[in-house]
Amino acid sequence: MITLTHYLVVSALVFGLGLYAALSRRNAVAMLMGIELMLNAANINLVAFNKYGAPGAMQGQIFALIVITLAACEAAVGLALILAAYRRFETTYVDDLNLMRW
Amino acid sequence: MTSVVWIIPLLPLAAFAAVTFWGARLPGRGAYVSIAAIVLAAIGGLAVLAQVTGGARADLTYTWVAAGGRPIVVGFIVDPLSAVMLAMVGCVASLITIYSVGYMAGDPHYPRFFAYLSLFQFSMLFLVLADNLLFIYAGWELVGLCSYLLIGFWFDRPAAARAALKAFIVTRVGDFSMMIGILMLYLRTGSLRFDDVFHALGTGALGGTFLTVAALLVFGGAVGKSAQVPLHVWLPDAMEGPTPVSALIHAATMVAAGVYLVARAYPLFLLSPDHEALTIVAWVGGITALLAATLAIVEDDLKRVLAYSTMSQLGYMMLGLGVLGYSAGMFHLLTHAVFKALLFLAAGSIIHAVATNDMKRMGGLARAMPITFWTFVAATLALTGIPPFAGFFSKDAILLAAYAHDRVLWVLGLAGAFLTSLYMGRLCWYAFAGDFRGGAVPGAAHGDGAAHRAAGPHESPAVMTVPLVILAVLAVGLGWIGAAAFGDPFGRLIRFAGLEAPAGNGGALALSVAAAAAGWAAAGALYRWRIVAPETLRRDLGALYTLLVRKYYVDDVYDWVFVRAGAGAVWIAGAIDRYVIDGLVNAAGWLAARLGLGLRYAQSGREETYLLLAALGVVVIVLARLAW
Amino acid sequence: MTGEAIAFYVLAAITLAAGAVVATSPNLMHSAVALIPALLGVTGLYVLLNAEFVAGIQVLIYAGGITVLILFVIMLTEGGTGLRIRQRNEQAAIAAAVAAATVALLIAVAGRTPWAHEPGALPSYTPGAIGQSFLGPNLPLFEGTSVVLLVALVGALLIARKETGE
Fold first, then answer.
1. Which of B600, B608, B615 lies at the smallest CB-CB distance from A94?
2. I want to staple B286 with a disulfide (CB 3.0 to 4.6 A). Which of B412, B430, B502, B533 is the partner?
3. Which chain B positions have a beta carbon within 8 Å of A98's beta carbon?
4. ipTM higher than the 0.85 cut
5. Total domain count for chain C?
6. Which of A4-8, A96-100, B106-110 is the most confident on average?
7. Which of B175-189, B289-303, B552-566 is predicted with the least confidence, judged by mean pLDDT?
8. Is domain A4-96 classified as CATH 1.10.3720.10?
9. Which of A2, A29, A79 sits opposite C28 (nearest CB)?
């Protein structure tokens, strides 16, 4: 019997992988991929709660759809930024991009 | 007239405003406006006096602040006391203002002078008419301000500026005490009107030590304004002002305000337990009368002698009020106003002619300035209490009351009378007898009449001498309104219910006249016939002479205790401000700057670090929440 | 073990294994390509959760759109050169610890909370219900999202365009 907790555990693990990727990667694109993973983990939660936590309602799925849309936006803007930064600094490695400092 | 009495003080106020704003463009460069206003006020005052003598009384009240259960009711009162003061202030001030036209001629700040005079007159008339402590206090502060402005009229002279400041600050000490006293009365009675306060005395709501303390605090204001010991130090220095101002301040108006206040608030003093407050008033007055007279003997500055004389006479008034001689004190206030104004104006006339204040540089003026000389002598005789001049009647009324009340005070007064004759005799012989001794020190141009220095002394213009003559007539004749021989009309008008003047006493009368005559004789012996040379006396009594010249070291003590100690306290406060307060502020700034310098290294520009710290923060917060 | 459980475990394993590759692979291309099975595994989980429409959108946008976009960007930047340079920064160890702590906390919270264990009934045809909802009570949300999408795409164009004028 698969319960809500199973999905939550999977979601948490995916989130952890995404967080690790976002924190440990030097490459901005890889960090972005980690963020996508975290968003997916959140979506798993939303859809799972929609089924187990609030039966009969559709708000969880609707929220997941909105998150997917916004994730697309975020990916588009983020990748555009990375491209712009690459043109300017010839790198996508964020530890080389430290102009915003004292 | 009594129902529109409020117009009287408004006339000089309007003149003040007009002269301030339009000044030199008005007729007589503003002087005529001031004169018109004060003459009209004087006529109004006389009309009020006439009606009051006929029995008219009025109390115009107006609820100014309806503050709950304690509304502040203000108003003007018309009774014998205020009517007499009104007429006296109006008349004397009119003559002084007219005189000023001649005296101040050529001064570059001529309109400003008349504006100040008008403001001063307004303040004094306002104060006199007040039927409540609030108005009294307002008028009190206004005359204080005006005296500051007028004493420091020649503010480009450092001595004048200093004297103005001194007058203002010293009287402030008294004013503050008076304010506390007024507040005490208000808190206890819930009203500032004299009627209500006196009513509270009758019902017993006000009494005991509380009353004594409050009365003495109010008296503190009078001590400051009337230059009584120990707040007398400002008055001699105030002679730096123009001489008409000295006449106005030291004769008719400001200094009389203190005496008037005591008279106005008389029940407060009278009904304090065992007359305690009144006794203190009497002693302060008696001591001042004697001390000031001793100081006058060694003073060479003509105006300062008169200033000490004023202090002394004010002491007599206080003494008179203190020994239950209510009408005697007020009578002396009236006559003194006349003859002291005359003395100052005559002195101004002299200074105008010889351009110095130093009586030892005068001499022989009796021939050069006959009108000034005769009027001055009339005033001097009045001051020294020689019958039948005005001062005789009022001073002897006071001495009589003192004799009946307390012999020690009477002796003080008698000694004062002797000294008064002595120093006035000295003054007269120095100034008028002998030959002219040179006038102004060459090169030391003095503001007083410096523009009019001529080859030799000459009589002043008519605009100055006519007021002198009018005042001289009054100085000679005014005393009779208080003479028992004519039924004492003044005493019947100004009297305090329940206090009757003591019966005449031939012996005391004779003694006081004898004291005055002895003073004249001593002065003559010293300064006219030189039976004993003053220089010898000065050498033999060196210590006493030094003590007097240094004014009993009161100024020095004040300098050490208040000025230097004050400067020390200010220095300490400044140091605290500079090093502790500023130090704290600077330390806060310095700390913030150092913290910023240190913390800026956290701004590494590496977003992966920021992100890590954000995640770490989430973990920590959630952990803390779970653990808790 | 029911078919549902088998499917869940298989899908979860695919997702996590692919996610691990995404998070740790030293080769950026491998990471990007591994993102596809990871997202598809999530899609399978959506299907298991009766969210067919969400699953479809996931495939279209994530697997089909975003992943391709990421691959393009990698190609356009130096990632396409095939150089294997160091991909982990110096704080990777702390990052792993923080991530592990986060996971542990999430699992702990999920385990502690008393959830309703029985799955609830969903509408028989969820895409229809979603459509009704978006054109009904959630219309402002829908429109707002579309505006955000438009702004983001215009912004992305603006940021990424070649600055020729300078």
1. B608
2. B412
3. 604-606
4. yes
5. 2
6. A4-8
7. B552-566
8. no
9. A29
